[in-house]
Every structure is written in C-alpha cells, then in structure tokens.
Design goal:
Blueprint: E1 8-12, H1 17-28, E2 32-36, H2 42-49, E3 53-55, E4 69-72, H3 81-88, E5 93-95, H4 96-106, E6 108-113, H5 118-131, E7 137-139, E8 151-152, E9 158-162, E10 177-180, H6 188-191, H7 194-206, E11 211-215, E12 228-232, E13 241-248, E14 253-259, E15 262-269, H8 274-289, H9 294-302, E16 312-316, E17 321-325, H10 330-343, E18 349-353, H11 358-363, H12 365-372, E19 377-380, H13 397-402, E20 408-410, H14 413-423, E21 427-431, H15 440-449
Parallel strand pairs: 1-2, 1-4, 2-3, 4-5, 6-9, 6-10, 7-9, 10-11, 11-12, 17-21, 18-19, 18-21, 19-20
Antiparallel strand pairs: 7-8, 13-14, 14-15, 16-17
Helix pairs in contact: 5-8, 5-9, 10-12
C-alpha cells in the first residue's frame, strides 16, 4: 500500500503531538480522518474543527470500520479494545513511526534526533525553510508559536521530521540530512541499558544518506559513519558552526554566527536560554548546507517566536517573569534553570516540576536532584504516570530526599496554586511533560492579579 492509495485513516491516540501532525498530513491529502483519544484537549478540539471525527471512549461501537489504514501510538496499552479489534479483523495496522518511514522514503527528509532539543531544532529548521521560501513539509513534536500548528504542507518535496528515539522509532528513518543533539540516558524502560541506547543512535547515524550535523564533542563521534559530517556548538570555535559576541537583551540574544572561523554575519534570537543558541547553530548549519543565504536565515530568526512549552515566556515584564517548559530530563532541567539564572541574574529562581514516568524518575533520580538543586526553591508535584503503572517505592519524595536544597516542597495541584498566591515568586518556572501545562493559565492569573 502506498500513501496515494490511502483514502481513510483511523488514529488511536490522535491527540498526541506526533499523531496529530500525521492526522493533519492525511487530511491535507484529501483523506477522511477519524480517531480516538482518551482525553479531550485544545489540540483534539482543533482537529475536530478541521473536520476530523474524534471520540473519547474506547468503544467498539464508535470506531470506524471503513478505513484503509489504522495508525496507533506505542503509548496505547496492548489491552486497548479498539486496537485489538482492528488487529483481529485483518486491517492494516501500523505504528506512527511506520507512517513517518513512508513519508521519509517519499521525500528528501531532514530528521532531527537526540535526547534534547529535537522539537526546538526541527521547528527552527522548518521555520527558516518556510520563511526563506525554500519550502518544506513539517512534522513537529510541538506547536510552532509562529504558525500555531505542528504540521504544514509545501509542494517542495523536503520534509523536516522529528526523529523520536522512544520505542526505537527513529531506526525506521533514512534521512538525507540528520541532526543529532545528544545521546544522554533516557527511555531505559525501552532500551534496558545506556549501551544499548547508544548502539541504536549509532545505527541511526549509519542510515544517514548524505550529511550528519551533530553537536561538537558528542560521545562516540569517532564511530559516526555518515558520508559527510558537520558540527555545531553554542560558542566552541572548534565546531564548524558556532556563535560569538553574544549579548543578552532582557531574555533575548544578539550574536554573530561563524562557519569554520569565517564570519557569516549577525542575527537576533528572540528566545531565552543559552541552549537555544546551540539549537539555532544546528538550524543555521542545515540552512547553509541547503544554500539558503545568511541574510534569509537571519531574517527568519529575527521573527522566530519559538515553540509552545519550550522556554516559553508566559509573563515577561520589569518585575515578573514566568517561563513554561516541557523539560522532563535532568539535563533539560539543568539547561533550563541555568539559562533562566543567566538571563535574570537578580531574581530568585522558583521551580514547579512534575516528574514524568515512574521508571524515568527511578532511573534518573540523582540527576533530577542535582539539576533541581540549581534553583532557590522547588515545588514537586506527584509523578505523571502516562503509560505506566506505579512502581513500589517510587514517588516525587525520592527526588526531594536526594536534594541538598532546603526549600523543597511536595504539593498537590491545589497546594501549588495556594503556594503561588502566598509566595508571589518574581521568577517562576513550570516544567514537565505531563499535565502541568493545565496549571499554567491559573498560575498566570494569580501572578497577574498581584500588585506591581
């Protein structure tokens, strides 16, 4: 079956950020799209508004039997009734990663992989290609703040794809160009060991058809076997692409971009976080490789406003800052807190963090404690279980017990709002990959109600 033969698609877990991008892809191609998700969200309501039939109950009466293809996310439990019905009745049932494989094989794909930064870098790359009129199809793991979507179509047969390491999904991709940001330990519930995870990254690298662009100094880089390689860094002059003359401007940056020591020019990056300079250098490397002029690259970055929940400014004024971020790995938290400190040096850093997955909390507890100790005060919510059942002895308390910081509190969602009402923090970070984002608006309202 080819993509052109698919006229009706059913998604199990359609509200996922990656799944919804594929749903929009098929809808754009004229297919009938329907699906299931366990929870109604802003995103699923948008999909419904775009003409997709969605229900929120695992009910065989509600599923669509007239479909050419069924797509499911690996986050769906194996006991799911609808999934099993389709499997038992001979339908073509594939994972999200299989569809991305079809797409990547039919286009010149630019795939972004790594433990951190995938969504921001893929969105930056897609934005530069779109803004410069080079054009691309984009399949993003977050909502572009510039365009309000995670997918867009273009006649240019170039696709920017976020290459997810969860469930070894990225091993189905054979990109023309790939970006690799990091290989830090994560998803050990899938890989078992760090060595196994790193072997899979090396296999992904071996599948790159033309050029691998990777973070300078990345572990195992001597083993990379892509035909061509380039490196990037935030400021390391040994990299092929790096930044210099960095000036901070109340949460944003002005910088000079260099290619192998050659000055390409100056540009503005209207985002916070030193890690976003690094992400931007990766995007510059991709665009430069595609022979997009630096003037066009700089013009695109000047109006780039980021990705929802990636160092996203919820409030930013002279007396108060609130940042929301998807960070759910110790290294991401370290970069997030350190970046906020470097940008707002005179303010006390308060962090509300919701751990994501029992297994990740158990496996990386020491790293979480070390990173959160960089804050001045930390509020921990209960672990967001996502696809997992509880693990005995694993809770947010094991992070608190490992921390040296004295100002650590474990609070309920209601307790968090009461704490914000009382503490009125001047610099507040909300972080996590669960449902902590539903607290952002209530917290914002409390903070904005405070007298300046």
């Amino acid at each position: 079956m080819t993509l052109n033969q698919i006229h009706s698609v059913y998604f199990i877990g359609i509200g996922g950020i990656g799944m919804s991008a594929l749903a929009r892809f098929f809808k754009e191609r004229g297919a009938s799209v329907s699906g299931y998700d366990k929870t109604k969200t802003v995103l699923t309501e948008k999909l419904q508004g775009e003409g997709m039939d969605i229900h929120y109950e695992d009910n065989l009466v509600l599923l669509n039997k007239q479909v050419d293809l069924v797509v499911y996310t690996p986050a769906i439990p194996t006991t799911h009734n609808e999934l099993n019905w389709y499997l038992q009745h001979g339908y073509k049932v594939v994972k999200r990663s299989d569809v991305l494989q079809y797409i990547s094989q039919s286009m010149n794909s630019i795939c972004v992989a790594g433990t951190h930064g995938k969504t921001t870098m893929s969105t930056m790359i897609a934005h530069v290609l779109r803004h410069s009129a080079y054009g691309c199809n984009a399949f993003l793991g977050g909502i572009s703040a510039n365009y309000g979507v995670n997918y867009w179509f273009n006649e240019n047969q170039t696709a920017v794809i976020e290459a997810d390491e969860y469930d070894r999904s990225f091993l189905k991709l054979f990109p023309y160009i790939a970006v690799l940001s990091a290989m830090d330990a994560d998803h050990l519930d899938i890989y078992g060991t760090v060595d196994e995870m790193e072997k899979c990254y090396l296999q992904f690298v071996s599948q790159v058809k033309d050029t691998l662009i990777y973070k300078h100094g990345l572990k195992h880089s001597r083993l990379f076997t892509a035909p061509h390689t380039l490196t990037y860094s935030s400021q390391n002059e040994a990299a092929d692409y790096y930044a210099g003359d960095i000036a901070m401007q109340h949460g944003s940056y002005h910088l000079t971009v260099y290619r192998r020591g050659e000055r390409l020019g100056e540009m503005d990056l209207p985002l916070g976080g030193i890690h976003n300079i690094e992400n931007a250098m990766a995007a510059v490397a991709v665009a430069d490789l595609l022979e997009i002029s630096f003037e066009s690259i700089a013009a695109a970055f000047a109006v780039f406003v980021g990705v929802k929940r990636r160092f996203e400014y919820i409030i930013r004024n002279n007396h108060q800052v609130m940042i929301d971020d998807y960070a759910h790995h110790p290294e991401e938290l370290r970069m997030l807190i350190s970046s906020a400190r470097s940008l707002f040096t005179q303010q006390k850093v308060s962090v509300i963090f919701q751990p994501h997955l029992y297994s990740r909390t158990r496996d990386l507890v020491d790293g979480f404690a070390t990173s959160l100790d960089l804050a001045d005060e930390v509020i921990l919510l209960d672990i967001y279980p996502a696809r997992e059942l509880p693990i005995e002895g694993v809770s947010s308390a094991i992070i608190a017990e490992k921390m040296s910081l004295s100002a650590v509190h474990i609070l309920s969602r209601e307790g968090v709002l009461q704490w914000v009402e009382t503490a009125r923090p001047s610099l507040l970070i909300t972080a996590g990959a669960g449902d902590i984002d539903t607290l952002v608006d209530p917290i914002k309202k409390i903070l904005e109600s405070a007298k300046s």
